[in-house]
Structures are given as structure tokens and as C-alpha cells.
Design brief:
Two copies of one chain form a homodimer.
Chain A: E1 5-10, H1 14-24, E2 29-36, E3 52-54, E4 67-70, H2 78-86, E5 90-93, H3 101-115, E6 118-120, H4 129-140, E7 144-150, E8 153-154, H5 156-163, E9 168-177, H6 179-186, H7 195-198, E10 199-207, H8 213-221, E11 231-236, H9 239-245, E12 251-261, E13 265-275, H10 278-298, E14 303-305, H11 320-327
Parallel strand pairs in A: 1-2, 1-4, 2-3, 4-5, 5-6, 6-14, 10-11
Antiparallel strand pairs in A: 7-12, 8-9, 9-10, 12-13
Helix pairs in contact in A: 1-10, 2-3
Chain lengths: ~325, ~325
């Protein structure tokens, strides 16, 4: 401990676990400890030697942690923790409620400016790397259209919605991008795609004992906001099959910019991810951006930042001359 | 003229032409003029109203041009023009001789620091956007391998080499990435790929009258550095077919990072381009980065920069709050 950039993890769910593993792959960083609201004695880290500290005591560790990576949820945890922790630490988080980003940015920015800290918000892949590619696409090809497709991947929000249907014991939902829609976009057709044309939804559901499968299917496929606007398929499986075949959290997607230069010359820029573990990948992005956050802090900058504000070179442990020689 | 960021174009070949068209798509920019070593009376721009100015007079236009986009070649033009023009202007160029980037950077950096200007070097897609994705891939997934595939695309260097073969009147060469190799990389196999396994080369050749096609084919496929290490196919066609079917300059390629997180979890990040015109796309990248160069200059920064040093937000004409609301 104490070597390189000292990272604190706030919250030890899937994301926190992933951050622990990603730090272990980063020789210029060390894990200071995990901060938790739970009883520290009951939090078992992947590396049993990791120090687990009550979140209530976090301010005692100021000056000993270079960057706090906030691994809580966007609905309840981050709106409180983001501004609070930015008042004492350089922070990185993955706040992902797109519609509330402006207000969250403002709250965290005010706290970070007041404390002289850097706070990197909404880091991950969407928001995050996908956002960066949406920006690059339209900045480089101003005449054109941008398309984002998600999946194939497990959607946490839609899986939660499934589980609230009467008669459902457990279940998961996969978002599947339409291969036909992607092919049309890649071909430079600039299609106007309806929600139904872009993605389909596939549900794997375990029924409660005695539940009526037809009624459950109907309740799912007609659910407003979540399923009604999509072609949704519902598969009924056993709890054993669910646990055996659907425990992973794959995800990914595509950001495609289809643009025209000169006299209607087609140009297509595409960024895609195929992730066997969504939380582990998001964690890896958080850790790379923690390096950038620390560097900005050392330079004396303060305030909130997003992926749009970070020069790519700040993410790499290599020095600029090596980057130019090896990767440019 | 004089509205927004005032751009000067140095050199009016394919790249300069593309920059002219890209500026016309950018409402926050205007074209100040084209600087040329040729007789200005003989340079006909796409927009006949564009001012064409002798390059020898370039210093008379200091203070009237915000950013000079250098559209000359990397072998002969830029090594001289890059440092020279950075002494008087904020510049952007597409220097693409990978092996000589460190010395070119040093020369341009010294000139730009001395003059208090910004000089963005090696902007385009490779070097450029591909380099950025190579950096992102290894920074986010430190455990893994990076792969760059080029094509399908017209290679200028290999087309030139073809034309120097005795008996060849004209010709073009396409670089074609191996679909099998890309599939193996995407599958997370981490293959070690030989040169021959990554790309094939396809040549369309017009013979001189009376030339021996077998001898020409043999001379091409055995040419060291250019073709000997690849599976090369040679097609003999008429001059009419060459002009009709092979006048476009398509290109593109793939940067793929295949990495592992946690316990050997596969994660694949991919960036790809499918370009119907390589020079028009490169020009569009140059113009977006000219916006960033101008902003850094206005902030008072100086010295040479590459894509690694530029925060994505600087490329967009939109203000940061709009970017966060619309694209994050």
C-alpha cells in the first residue's frame, strides 16, 4: 500500500469488486481500502488483505487517498455521495442517469471547486466512451446521423422491471440490437429507425409456483416504457437454468456515425464493445480515468469534468514521448 | 471571409481540396485562402471565389489567418514547412511517417514554443483516430493485445511501387484485411498473426504495349517490403477499366483491443472506419482539430501537440454544457 496513485473504493458491489481487480492490473496504482456503509466485518474482498473501513469515517482518511472511486448507484447513492465526497477528495464516478447529468454536474462541480478537488463524473461506456464517440462522430462529420445500439446485453433496469411482474419469481432481460438496422446504417442509408426497429428484447423468466404463464407473458410484453414499444420474446425456464446459464453480465453495443463529405461521399465511423462482463469493463474505465483525475489534481486544476474534458494521453501510465513513439 | 475561425490551406492537392469542402460544412469557420507554390493563376479551387496566394508571401498574412492547415506530403513538404510555418502561425498537419514522428515533433515543438503558437501534428486517422484508440485500448484493458488492420483500401505507397515495375503503364493496389484474422481477434483468441495472415494485396494493372504479363506478375509478387510477404493477386485490366472503376480512394480499417479483466473475462473494444474517400475524411479530421488548435492558442498555450493531448470536447463547435446535455 501507499505505492503510486492511492485509490479508495466507495461501495463494494459488482463495480467495486471490478475496480479492485482493475487496480491489480495497474502497476502505477495501489488500493488504499474499501469504504462501506455495511458492517466492515461482513465485507469480504477478493483480496482478503484489503482494508475495509466504515464510510462514516471517510474524512479521517483525507490526504491518504489520492482518488476515491465511487461505486454506488446513480439513483440513491451518487446524488448524495458525489457532492459530499468531492468536498474532501478527488473523485471518479459512473453516474449514468442521462437526463439528470446537468444537475448532477452542477452539484459536484460546486463542491469540487470549493474544495479545490477534481471530480470526474459519468465515466464508463455509456455515458463515457460511447458519448466520446458520439461527439467525435458529429465533430468530424458534421453532415450525417449518429446511431447508438445497445447489446447484446443484460439490462439491469429491464431485468428489475420483469421481477416486479406478479407471478415472476426471477428473471433476466437481454437487449438485442437489430442486425438489419445496423447493416442499413453501415451501408450509409441514414435510415430513420423506430424504437421497435432498433432493438428487440428477450426475457428469461422463472415463474412462481402456480403462476399462469400466458398472463405473465402478456403483462411483460405490454408493460409501458419497458417492453410495449419493442418486439419482446419471453422464455420460461427453471431456476436451475437461470442460475446456470444467465449469471454473467455481458453487454456492449455500437456507436455509428454515418456522414457525407464533399459530393455525397459516404464515410462511416464505428465504435463497438463486446463485453463478457459489463461491471468489470466499466470498472476498468473508471480506473484509467482515476489516473487522469489524479494528474489534473496534481496540476492544480479543480471542478467537475467528464470524458469530454480529458485528453486521451492522461489515461495512460506511459509518458508522452513514449506514447508518440509507440502508439501514434 | 473573416467570420469565425479563419483557416488557411497550404497546398491544394487531394487533401487541400478536402479541407476546402470540410470548412464549408463548418459554420464556425471560414476559408481565408489557399497558399500554393504553383502559379496561383493555374490553381482552380472548388469554389472559384477562393483567394489563391503564393506561398512565398505567406508571412504577409500573419494575424489574418487563425489556423494554417498544412496539406503537403510527409516526405518532402512537411519536414520543411512544419517548423517554418509554426514559427508564424497556429498549424495543423497530417505528418504520417510513423518512424519519424519523434524528430518531427521535436522540430515543430521548438518552433512553436519559440513563436508562442500551437502546432498539432500527425492528425488524421492513422496516425490520428487509430492512434487514439490504440491508446484507449491499452489504458483501459492493460492486460491484452492490440491489433490494427487496414483496408479495404487503396494504398498510395503500394500503388506507386507497382507503377515502377517495368512493363506497367498504370495501376492501383488495394490492401484487404483478412476476415478470418479479424474474426479470431474478435473472438478473444489473442492470436499471434504473421504479416501474411493479417492482410492480402490486390493489384489492378494496365500493361505497357507488348509487356509480358507473367514477368510483370512475378516482378510484383516478389518485390521485397511491398509484396513479397503477402499473398498478392494481380489482375490485368484496360486503361479504360482502370479509369472507370478505380478512380475513387476508399480506405479504412479496424483497431481492436482484446483484453481480459478479473478472472480471464474477455472484453473487446473495436474502432473501425469505412471511408469512400480517404483524403476527404482525413481533411474532415484536420478541420475538427483546427478548431481545437485555435482554442488552445486563444487560451495562451504553445508548442506541438498530437491527438493524445486534445480533450474531445475541444473538437466540437458546441459549448460544454450543451455537449453534456445532448451527447453524454
Amino acid at each position: 500500500m501507499g505505492e503510486g496513485i492511492r485509490i479508495g473504493i466507495v461501495g463494494y458491489g459488482n463495480l467495486g469488486r471490478g475496480v479492485e481487480r482493475a487496480i491489480a492490473q495497474s502497476p502505477d496504482m495501489s488500493l488504499y481500502g474499501v469504504f462501506t456503509r455495511r458492517d466492515p466485518a461482513k465485507v469480504v474482498c477478493h483480496d482478503a488483505g484489503v482494508r475495509v473501513i466504515p464510510l462514516d469515517d471517510v474524512l479521517d482518511h483525507r490526504g491518504q487517498v489520492d482518488v476515491m472511486i465511487l461505486c454506488g448507484g446513480s439513483r440513491d447513492d451518487l446524488p448524495v455521495q458525489g457532492p459530499q465526497l468531492a468536498a474532501g477528495f478527488t473523485t471518479v464516478d459512473s453516474f449514468d442517469t442521462h437526463a439528470r447529468i446537468p444537475e448532477y454536474f452542477a452539484a459536484v462541480d460546486a463542491a469540487a471547486r470549493a474544495s479545490g478537488q477534481i471530480a470526474l463524473i459519468s465515466i464508463g461506456w455509456d455515458p463515457g466512451l460511447f458519448s466520446m464517440n458520439r461527439l467525435l462522430g458529429e465533430a468530424i462529420l458534421p453532415q450525417g446521423e449518429s446511431y447508438t445500439f445497445w447489446g447484446k446485453g443484460l439490462s439491469q433496469g429491464h431485468s428489475d422491471a420483469l421481477r416486479h411482474v406478479a407471478g415472476v419469481r426471477a428473471g433476466v432481460q437481454y437487449t438485442i440490437p437489430s442486425p438489419e438496422a445496423i447493416a442499413r446504417v453501415r451501408a450509409g442509408e441514414l435510415p430513420q429507425l423506430s424504437t421497435r426497429e432498433k432493438h428487440t428484447r428477450e426475457c428469461y423468466v422463472v415463474l412462481d409456483d402456480g403462476a399462469d404463464s400466458d398472463a405473465v407473458r402478456e403483462a411483460i410484453v405490454t408493460m409501458p416504457n419497458y417492453f410495449a414499444d419493442y418486439d419482446t420474446t419471453v422464455h420460461f425456464i427453471s431456476i436451475e437454468a437461470l442460475q446456470r446459464d444467465h449469471a454473467a453480465m455481458p453487454h456492449g453495443g455500437f456507436v455509428i456515425r454515418s456522414g457525407q463529405t464533399g459530393d455525397q461521399t459516404h464515410q462511416v465511423v464505428e465504435f463497438s464493445l463486446a463485453l463478457d462482463s459489463n461491471p468489470e469493463f466499466t470498472s476498468s474505465v473508471l480506473v484509467a480515468y482515476a489516473r487522469a483525475a489524479h494528474r489534473l489534481r496534481v496540476k492544480g486544476e479543480s471542478g467537475a469534468r467528464t470524458v469530454f474534458d480529458i485528453a486521451p494521453g492522461l489515461l495512460s501510465p506511459k509518458d508522452p514521448a513514449d506514447l508518440r513513439r509507440e502508439l501514434l
